[in-house]
Amino acid sequence: MPWTRFHTLMLIALGVGWALDSFETNIIGSVFGVLKAQWHLSAAEGSLAVSVWVFGTLVGAIAFGYLADRFGRKKLFLATLLWYALFSVATVVSWNYDSFLFFRAMTALAVGGEYSAVTATMGEFMPMRQRGKTDSLILAGFPVGALLSAAVSYFVLNHLRPDLSWRVGFGFGTTMALLFFWIRRVIPESPRWLLQQGRVDEAEAIVEAIACSAQRAGSPRSVCDAAARRYAGTGIVTARPTFWRNARELFGAYRLRCGLASALNFSQAAIVYGVLTLMALVILPYMKVPAADMPLYYLYGNAAALLGGIAAAVLVQAWGRRPSLFFGYTFTTLAIIVIYAMHTLAGMVLGYCLIQFGVTWAYISGYVVSSEILPTRIRASGLGVSVAIGRLGAVIAPLMLTRMYAASGTPSAALVGLLVLAIPGPLAAALWWLWGHETRDLSLEEGSVQEAGESWQRTSATAR
Q1: Is 436 helix (H, G, I), strand (E, B) or coil?
Q2: Are 315 and 231 in contact (CB under 8 A)?
Q3: Inter-residue contact 20 to 230 (CB < 8 Å)
Q4: With contact defined as beta carbons under 8 Å apart, do 321 and 155 qualify?
Q5: CATH topology of domain 5-463
Q6: If we measure between CA atoms, which residue out of 247, 244, 239, 199 comes closest to residue 377?
Q7: What is the pLDDT of residue 241?
Q8: d(Cα 340, Cα 337) in Å, to the nearest integer?
Q9: Over the range 190-209, which residues count as b (16 or more CB within 10 Å of their CB) and which as e?
Q10: Which of 38, 109, 117, 288 has the most C-beta neighbours closer than 10 Å?
Q11: Mean of the pLDDT values across residues 328-346?
Q12: Cβ 83 vs Cβ 117: under 8 Å
């Protein structure tokens, strides 16, 4: 189908949701110095805030991922955004550290659900030829949200009382969520999901409406009609998901692809949360950077991450999914070695920027691949499982790295630990390049057929 105004709206609506998730995830690093002083927290207690957040996203990814497959993408879009807004407001009025941790965990449930719903849906609407680029641009909303969180934090920390500044920062995310709830309500249900449920008339009506908008935009009617006919003939088999049926498929016929997505997610989450913890609790304090100036360094890193997102948007289409995936994760691993070799603030910040560039390129490529190799009936569930396993890396990294720093007294030991946690990413990407299949310019149905996974399994077994 040709590109239409509808696709542009989808790109914005999903990208903004991803940016809001990133805002909420990253703001803790910017304001932690103030929270630490207000509630007299140790580094270990501070890392608990990151771990509680990550555990909440783990649970939310699995639960809301299954619900998105069971009850539809649109309901979950709206439910997770409202849930996010509710507990984000509660976070603003936290009266002590325990209440803060509880409300952060509740907010994280919605963000985990967003990970599953957005990544499952982004490719289900986009034209095949633009899918890699548009999916990458949606996911590039993450560094945009991180940039916004750093900018807002820097402003409030330098213009408001410390006990008020962090509350205003979290409140900004709530305001944005309520604003974009209005935008998101116009997104229709995924036609692929409707076909999966046997609701053919509803699916055809949505596709017809999109085709008509393409015709109004100047595309010939024959092109629009042909696109709608091809869509109606995708051959999706009607199936109503149940939790145990989805689990059997994911850990049975699709275990290799689910394992690939999980290994990639583990690596990137360990790096993202590990380097966030190291910057906030180890590197910047070790270099005597004042708490009010910390958001400035996150601005540098998030600007580099945005460039990594743009690189991914270009390379997943120009190079193909497999090369972009491999080189993104390999670049990130090498960047950790760079920051390990640096002993000045400028050098460490440079290494941090390289890591942010590489890990954004890597995880965007990873999410694009993962969303294309899982079928519609278990796509959100499978992505939810991969996000959940990734969050295990994000839980382990802050606790492990802060303890390694406490034992050694220098950042070097913690950076070695981060390097070890990163290894599953480039390893899984290399295996997929060798034995996986390229999904560029394939429909989602062609890219996720079971036979492709079985072929990879047979090839891997033969090679071993």
Answers
A1: coil
A2: no
A3: no
A4: no
A5: Growth Hormone; Chain: A; (1.20.1250)
A6: 239
A7: 66
A8: 5
A9: bbbbbbbbebeeebbebbbe
A10: 117
A11: 90
A12: no
